[in-house]
Design goal:
The protein is built from 15 helices and 12 strands. The strands form 4 sheets. It has a 5-stranded mixed β-sheet, sandwiched between helices. Strands 9-12-11 form a 3-stranded antiparallel β-sheet.
Length: 427
């Protein structure tokens, strides 16, 4: 079919939408290989699979979903979300630091969304002026580009890792400062999206000092450019599979306890997803959680996000909101859910540790990787590397600047084979 077909019906922006999603196209190649009888390895998709290859499903969540009252399955949810779920989402974002942050004057609001992607859309649609650029790391989840361009927003980037001498830091603070300064000189609003901890596509997590330096950089920029609003969005899609799931709430508390005043023109917001943490990908449930010292600010944000949701998807699924709220409102169920989550986290940890070890043996130059679903190898020709691996029936995803390795999907006993395929692809 010609890409020009239908052009008389589609607007100019729609006509820029071409091709297939890279991740799903490589997943299709894996599926085709299996259908042809090959012993293929799936490192393509961003869903956690058991070593058997079956989708990992938290049995407690599955049980509560299936036993939910009919009205909780069929009825609309309130436009902003079920009150119990909104309260839970704040706790999931801030953890044990929630009470302390609220006690020292920070106000928090939440809006339910269809998955973490819905939360990202709420931010893109409301926290930046059309035509502005949003600040990202140069290695980021590809669909960010689509969310932003769909809201007529551009992208500015800074390096994922510092260049030159190896240090204990995973933050290029000088590049971050320079990028912020450049945007503040040309925009009245500056927004940055940061997927941390357990970054997709690398599995990188910032250190405690990195987080402190990062947030201090935003505070300093806000104070220096008081006529420019600053929004820092923490994409927390994988945070409950990280060693420090609520590190950003800890860092906010630490900065405030150090006597640093919170600027009025700085907002921190969390894009929360239940897809991975509660293994309910298809029920599309998440939230946008925003924190600011002025209650008038958070109240206004709650109104705007609720209206945006109403005008876009109406209301978010009630079933998932009810189910997870019910689980976390019952101590026994919550403990059982967490036991299962820990089991899944251990599977990921075992695969990552083995992958790092095998790549070290074979001198495969993977990036630092700590938490979550993925690992990453930089490459100037990622499509070539992925194609060479595919010849060995190992299917990975070539993205801008490198190859994503979906540890979440690779059976533990196939990890060594993936490292060997990368080694051969490089040689």
């Amino acid at each position: 079919m010609s890409e020009g077909a239908g052009s008389g019906f589609l607007n100019a922006f729609s006509q820029t939408k071409v091709g297939n999603d890279t991740i799903f196209s490589w997943w299709a190649r894996y599926q085709e290989a299996v259908s042809e009888g090959h012993d293929a390895v799936n490192g393509t998709i961003g869903a956690l699979l058991e070593d058997s290859g079956e989708l990992a499903i938290n049995s407690i969540v599955d049980k509560v979903v299936r036993e939910s009252p009919p009205v909780e399955i069929s009825a609309y949810a309130p436009l902003k979300g079920l009150p119990a779920f909104l309260d839970l989402s704040i706790t999931l974002a801030l953890g044990d630091m929630r009470e302390e942050l609220e006690s020292i004057g920070m106000n928090v609001t939440s809006t339910a969304s269809p998955g973490g992607s819905g939360a990202l859309f709420l931010a893109a649609a409301n926290f930046a002026d059309r035509g502005d650029k949003v600040l990202l790391r140069d290695r980021h989840w590809g669909p960010y580009d689509g969310f932003l361009s769909g809201c007529n927003l551009g992208i500015a980037t800074y390096p994922l890792l510092p260049s030159g001498e190896i240090t204990d830091s995973y933050l290029d603070i000088n590049s971050l400062k320079e990028s912020l300064s450049d945007l503040c000189s040309s925009q009245s609003k500056v927004m940055s999206w940061l997927n941390d901890p357990a970054h997709n596509p690398t599995g990188l997590s910032l250190t405690e000092q990195d987080r402190y330096d990062f947030l201090k950089c935003f505070i300093d920029s806000s104070l220096e450019h008081q006529d420019v609003s600053h929004t820092l969005l923490i994409d927390a899609a994988y945070h409950l599979y990280a060693d420090q799931p609520h590190g950003w709430a800890d860092t906010i508390c630490q900065l405030l306890h150090d006597g640093i005043s919170w600027p009025d023109n700085l907002l921190v917001t969390f894009a929360l997803s239940l897809s991975k943490s509660h293994t309910i990908y298809g029920l599309r449930t998440g939230a946008l959680v925003s924190i600011h010292p002025d209650k008038q600010v958070t109240d206004r944000i709650a109104t705007v996000m609720g209206v945006t949701g109403r005008q876009t998807w109406s209301a978010t699924s009630r079933l998932a909101q009810y189910s997870v709220s019910h689980i976390h409102g019952d101590e026994e169920l919550a403990n059982l859910w967490d036991d299962e989550r820990e089991r899944l986290e251990l599977i990921l940890g075992e695969r990552r540790e083995l992958f790092i070890k095998e790549c070290g043996k074979l001198k495969v130059p993977i990036n630092p990787t700590h938490d979550g679903f993925f690992a990453w190898m930089e490459s100037e020709d990622p499509v070539h590397v992925a194609n060479e691996c595919a010849k060995l029936q190992v299917y990975l995803v070539p993205l801008t600047g490198g190859v994503r390795i979906g540890l979440c999907a690779i059976p533990t006993d196939k990890i060594q084979r993936v490292a060997k395929a990368l080694s051969q692809a490089l040689s």
